[in-house]
Amino acid sequence: MSAQNQAPVRMPGLRVLTVLRTAQVTPRMRRITLGGDEIAGFGTGPNIKVLIPPPGDPDPQWPTVGPDGRKVWPPEDRRPAIRTYTARRYDEAAGELDVDFVLHGDHGVASRWAAQARPGDVLGIAGPGGRVHADADWYAVAGDHTALPAIGKIVEELPEHARGHVLVEIPDAGEIQDLKPPPGVELRWIMRDGAEAGTTTLLADAVRELPWPTDLPGDRIFAWVAGESSAVRAIRTHVRDERGLNRRRYLAIGYWKHGMNETSYHDEHDNDRDEDYYKAGQEEQAERTTAAS
Ligand SMILES: Cc1cc2nc3c(=O)[nH]c(=O)nc-3n(C[C@H](O)[C@H](O)[C@H](O)COP(=O)(O)OP(=O)(O)OC[C@H]3O[C@@H](n4cnc5c(N)ncnc54)[C@H](O)[C@@H]3O)c2cc1C
């Protein structure tokens, strides 16, 4: 068969998964449980890319790889939208992946998709990947509603001896989830109570007011921060410049930016990742390579 007649090869690493079931975790957080044949071998890691086909497309199209090895995207009107989410739970034995979507309104492609998702719908998933929190004795974990799936996972993974604080900004008390941090970690819900997401300094103010430990060296402290761009930037400046944490002792990523869709935020601001983010990632990778050799 000539190369021209061969079926296009789907982009490597992209799985097409099927919605198995949906559940309303809270009024504005919807859990989509995905599965299907292609879930086998899904690895560990915090973040995934979701590829959302245009609404109502009876035959969703996916990116492929051309003969020259380059990605080929479906035409504009059939092209899936790409967004970033958290692998909240992967159960290898059951072949299930949970992704929790904030329902922030119809103006978001992903939010709209999640609100309407039904068993049998398909979603493209790439990943998982991304950096995670490092080992520490004292943690400051701060994030907004979009970070709650990641924070839920982090809280489950914190060592029993951990001390520190988890701060979560949510719209109102209806969004509180049943998280169980270790006894030395205090969990605080910060309610916006009517204020629009991404317009307050509540989370950054709460981090600034945290009682910081005086009995630990900086290399036993870790700050994990995610949420709206302006809050993440303010908190990163605080933990780095005022609390003196070096780049290996904090992880701060903008999850979204007020007034901007994710494609633009990623393309124009790289989710507020800075040079130190990449340097720290390279150092972590070098240590893993050394440890494995
Ligand atoms: C590593 C990573 C992990 C993430 N994990 C999760 C997760 O597990 N669950 C989750 O819900 N989100 C998560 N997010 C955030 C999510 O990717 C963004 O909220 C994304 O913009 C949602 O896409 P959308 O298509 O719904 O809205 P977009 O089309 O991207 O944006 C449309 C409009 O909605 C606004 N907007 C976007 N998100 C919100 C929001 N939460 N509240 C109010 N307005 C908003 C934008 O500013 C824009 O004006 C994560 C982001 C990153 C980078």
What does this structure look like?
There is one protein chain. With 293 residues, the protein is an alpha/beta fold. The chain has two domains: 9-129, Translation factors (Elongation Factor Tu (Ef-tu), domain 3), CATH 2.40.30; 138-278, Rossmann fold (3-Layer(aba) Sandwich), CATH 3.40.50. The protein is 22% helix and 32% strand. It contains six helices and 15 strands. It has helices at 109-116, 148-157, 202-208, 229-242, 262-269, 275-292, and strands spanning 9-10, 14-26, 29-35, 47-52, 64-65, 71-72, 81-86, 89-91, 96-102, 122-129, 138-144, 163-170, 185-191, 221-228, 250-256. A seven-stranded antiparallel β-sheet has the order 7-4-10-2-3-9-8. Strands 13-12-11-14-15 form a five-stranded parallel β-sheet, sandwiched between helices. Strands 1-5-6 form a three-stranded antiparallel β-sheet, with no helix packed on it. Helix 3 runs parallel beside helix 4. The termini are far apart. 31% of the residues are buried. The model has no long low-confidence stretch (mean pLDDT 95). Bound molecules: flavin-adenine dinucleotide. The site of flavin-adenine dinucleotide has 28 residues, from strand 7, strand 9, helix 1 and strand 15.
